[in-house]
Amino acid sequence: MSQPNTWRKYLTDYNEGLGLVYERFVLNDFLDELRRRYGVRSLLEAPLYGMAGVSGINSYMLAQAGVDVTLVDDIPERIAGVERIWREDLRQPVNLVEIDPHEWGSLPFASRSFDLTWCWAALWYIRNPAGLLGELVRASRDLIFVAMPNNIQVGYWMRKLVIDQAFFANHDEAWTNIGRIRRLLESQGVEIVDEGVLDVPPWPDTVMPANEVLKRLGIRSQTLEDQFTGEGWQWSTMSYYTGAEPDLRDRVMRYAWLDHAPIPWQIKAVWAHHRYLVGRRR
């Protein structure tokens, strides 16, 4: 398994794009609801990479709420970059643990060490996804939360068939099968207590900035290029976290009407970017 090298850029360039900022805010709300409902005081996020954009900040809002956060990764350069982000920009304590790429099936934590263990969209990036799922169960004393890209939504197929075929040639799509993940968790003694979809904005999920999508589709338009680049197209979750743009969340979450719509998640799944499972250790 290989990981796109775009993460290096985002260790210093925090302009992630509207789609990623939206995804992170929706995830923040979901994680905070888990914290409140189940009394989460400690968590393990493994690996810290899965969402594109700035690495290692998915659990930050829970750290702000007093949760003890532990993050795991297998790339030393990325660990160092994430450590700097938390220390210099977020100014929040975090536990960072580096492992060998072959050690995802044997994480260095005692059993039942965390209230919550979780993984966001990362199973197809690591060498032993099944082993990691087992370790998430072993290391949790209560909750396990796993999400992966939704393989039936339009943007997924646009990416697969047209704009990013090379990615799918090198990554195992079987790990987008939420039923497979469910069976593995249940075989480890996990009771699934919630499942559904997250990240349902009005645009498709291509994982790329809009201007890059246009280029790959062969669309050349200076008007569109100007619309999706430049100073007027700056979207950074870090600006919100550091207080530079306190109104950012309100501006972005205006697009969340589909996420918040009171309709069955099975209907939303046609467009949702991610499927998820939440389980509890029996």
Total number of domains? 1
> How much is the average pLDDT?
89
- Stated plainly, the CATH topology is called Rossmann fold
Q: What is the structural class?
A: alpha/beta
- The shape, in one word, is globular
By DSSP, the count of extended strands is: 7
**Percentage of β-strand residues:** 15-25%
Uncertain segments of ≥5 residues (pLDDT<50)?
221-228
Summarize the entry for a quick read:
The chain is an alpha/beta fold and 282 residues long. Helices cover 38% and strands 17% of the residues. It has one domain: Vaccinia Virus protein VP39 (Rossmann fold, 3-Layer(aba) Sandwich).
Any overview of this molecule?
- The protein has a single domain (5-151, 171-203, 234-281), classed as Rossmann fold.
- Helix content is 38%, strand content 17%.
- It has helices at residues 18-38, 60-64, 76-90, 129-139, 154-163, 165-169, 178-187, 210-216, 222-227, 237-241, 248-252, 257-260, 265-268; strands at residues 42-45, 68-73, 95-98, 114-120, 140-149, 190-198, 274-281.
- Residues 221-228 have low confidence and may be disordered.
- It has a seven-stranded mixed sheet with strand order 3-2-1-4-5-7-6, sandwiched between helices.
- Helix 4 links the parallel strand 4 and strand 5 (140-149).
- The two termini are 32 Å apart.
- It is built from 13 helices and seven strands.
- With 282 residues, it is α/β, with parallel strands linked by helices.
Which tags fit this structure?
7 strands, 38% helix, seven-stranded mixed β-sheet, alpha/beta, 13 helices, Rossmann fold, 282 residues
